């Protein structure tokens, strides 16, 4: 039996609730409990709410956009219908392809071939129906629940690691959906409202839900990185708030600048954004990103192509090293573009007059700078330092050692627990000294460049806990 003195190896070192006052009406105690749930490294009820909210916002975002496209079709506005629908379908196809590719990478061989084929046929069918993200959210809930209900302590740790892996993938996919579908759709609908000279209720609702989807994807992405950190003290509410305001202000100013410029200079917008895309794509190629470990160069180029499109709206750190100069270069380029876009639009709109011209000008110019200010405050005050670098479980090194630090709970359900417990501990022993090629010291950049990883400290803790339970 496990020793009662052994703490959960994946729980953070953050503050614990020691208040002896157990009154159910004590707001301070409830606040502490909520804070511990938000930052504790264990699957909690708050995680369930995050997953359900992710599903709800995803369905609402796609549903309102589809409803808007149908409205354009019934009103014989076929050009707006085609654009709105294409801005839904093309990003969704990209999401499903990435989701399936990552599932193939993470797939673990099993002796039950018939069940394996059936499960993969079901997964491919659901991805073909554009439901891959929703299904993965439901699978993540199932994994997380098992991390709470499994009796064996070491097995709970394995399931929690599997939950972190699945949730990180979901958050990456949601980031794709936000900046490939929600952000372009928001630009398009703002442009249509300017062209039509009116803001009908359905379009406004669609824009509001797109903004909500963007905001929630940023929060979920930030929290997924937090779940992977070995020390719960490295982030707090202040860090979350600063990080969120940084992203929200810079992205909203960028979207607004593009939308108003497109109203007066439609075709020049494609020239400007196309030039920005090519510049970002070449820049990413020269950075030699290693999202796929550097061995799948064709896939890496394809990934850089998608990230270059995301760079139209938002900066994401794609290389494990000091990022201040890359961030400075990106934000200088984007701010110069934003000022040019809104300046030309303002000069043109003064000829016809507009009651909101000054508001847009101020928001684009100073809202963006405010976001940069929050970014500086975040990195000075709240950014975690000296954290061991996380190693992708599907890296080339892991495959050479025959390890895979995840629980495959899709196949082999009858002997699932026995099949996952031993490999989990053995693989952690093998991966204990893994490092990233080309790096002499361990540093963690909270960027977008990596999928799920496990630290050497966490590995040792899991091994010690499993030995204590024997």
Automatic annotation (TrEMBL):
Q: Name one GO cellular component term.
A: plasma membrane
Q: Which domain of life is it from?
A: Eukaryota
- Region described as Disordered: spans on this chain: 1-20
Q: Where are the transmembrane segments?
A: 48-73, 79-104, 203-222, 242-262, 267-286, 298-316, 328-347, 359-381
The membrane topology noted for this protein in its Swiss-Prot or TrEMBL record is: Multi-pass membrane protein
Primary location class: membrane
Q: State the UniProt keywords alphabetically.
A: Cell membrane, Membrane, Transmembrane, Transmembrane helix
Q: Which family does it belong to?
A: Belongs to the XK family.
Protein name in the entry: XK-related protein
Lineage of the organism = Eukaryota, Metazoa, Chordata, Cephalochordata, Leptocardii
């Amino acid at each position: 039996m496990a020793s009662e003195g052994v703490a959960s190896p994946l729980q953070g070192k953050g503050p614990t609730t020691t208040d002896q006052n157990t009154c159910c009406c004590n707001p301070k105690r409830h606040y502490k409990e909520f804070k511990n749930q938000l930052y504790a490294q264990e699957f909690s009820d708050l995680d369930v709410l995050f997953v359900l909210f992710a599903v709800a916002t995803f369905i609402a975002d796609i549903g309102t956009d589809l409803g808007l496209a149908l409205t354009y079709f019934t009103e014989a506005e076929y050009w707006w219908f085609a654009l709105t629908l294409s801005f839904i379908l093309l990003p969704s196809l990209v999401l499903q392809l990435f989701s399936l590719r990552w599932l193939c990478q993470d797939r673990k061989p099993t002796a039950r071939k018939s069940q394996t084929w059936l499960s993969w046929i079901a997964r491919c069918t659901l991805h073909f129906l554009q439901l891959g993200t929703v299904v993965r959210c439901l699978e993540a809930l199932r994994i997380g629940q098992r991390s709470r209900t499994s009796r064996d302590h070491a097995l709970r740790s394995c399931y929690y690691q599997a939950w972190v892996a699945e949730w990180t993938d979901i958050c990456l996919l949601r980031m794709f959906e936000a900046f490939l579908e929600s952000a372009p759709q928001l630009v398009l609908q703002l442009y249509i409202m300017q062209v039509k000279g009116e803001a009908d209720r359905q379009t406004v609702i669609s824009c509001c839900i797109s903004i909500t989807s963007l905001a929630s994807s940023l929060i979920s992405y930030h929290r997924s990185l937090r779940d992977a950190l070995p020390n719960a003290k490295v982030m707090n509410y202040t860090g979350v708030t600063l990080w969120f305001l940084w992203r929200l202000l810079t992205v909203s100013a960028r979207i607004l600048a593009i939308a108003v410029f497109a109203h007066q200079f439609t075709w020049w917008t494609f020239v400007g954004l196309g030039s920005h895309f090519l510049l970002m794509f070449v820049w990413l190629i020269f950075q030699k990103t290693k999202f796929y470990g550097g061995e799948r160069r064709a896939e890496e180029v394809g990934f850089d192509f998608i990230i270059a499109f995301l760079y139209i709206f938002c900066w994401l750190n794609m290389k494990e090293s000091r990022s201040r100069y890359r961030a400075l270069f990106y934000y200088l380029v984007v701010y110069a573009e934003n000022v040019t876009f809104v300046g030309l639009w303002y000069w043109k709109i003064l000829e016809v007059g507009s009651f909101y011209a000054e508001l847009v000008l101020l928001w684009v110019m100073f809202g963006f700078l405010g976001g940069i200010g929050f970014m500086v405050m975040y990195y000075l005050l709240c950014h975690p330092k000296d954290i061991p670098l996380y190693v992708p479980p599907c890296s080339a090194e892991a495959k050479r050692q025959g390890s895979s630090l995840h629980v495959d709970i899709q196949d082999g359900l009858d002997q699932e627990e026995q099949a996952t417990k031993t490999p989990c501990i053995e693989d952690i022993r093998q991966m204990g000294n893994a490092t990233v090629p080309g790096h002499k010291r361990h540093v963690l950049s909270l960027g977008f460049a990596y999928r799920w990883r496990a630290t050497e400290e966490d590995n040792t803790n899991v091994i010690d806990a499993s030995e204590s339970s024997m």
